[in-house]
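Hey team,

Sharing the Berberine/berberine-like domain-containing protein run so nobody has to redo it. Sequence (147 residues) first:
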Amino acid sequence: MESVVEELMGKLPGVSVVTYTAEPFLPSIFLHGPKSMFPPDRNHPFCVLHIMFVWEDRAHDNDIHEAIKESARWLAEAAPSDGGASEPATELLATNIEKTKLAKYPNIAIFGTPLDKMYGSNVERLRELKVQVDPKDVMGLAGGWKF
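Structure output:
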């Protein structure tokens, strides 16, 4: 991980901080409350991964956004192959970051994340609900994910 951060810092002028924080949840999280729209697949516990870069110059926004995405892709490809994990949080991250199993957490997903990557097959139902609840698209004026 350290080499990835060093490589990214070398490529990205003006980046002063890079942090990665894993927030694993136990499989028992699904025993509390009824089924919901997130996560779309309750067969796999999830782990929220916070990736944060800090920079000041807006001229670098696009490059840094792409670097964040590249960093997440690298983690998704590298984590499942790490069979030597011994810490429970690391094991949870390694087994659940696989692209096919892990839904992106909507509260922290980077802009441009497709809705189906967060809500899976529930997207169509969410669109139907949006038409019923917000027929004048008032919430469309706010930020956030657009159904």
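The radius of gyration is 17 Å.

Ping me if you want the raw files.
A.
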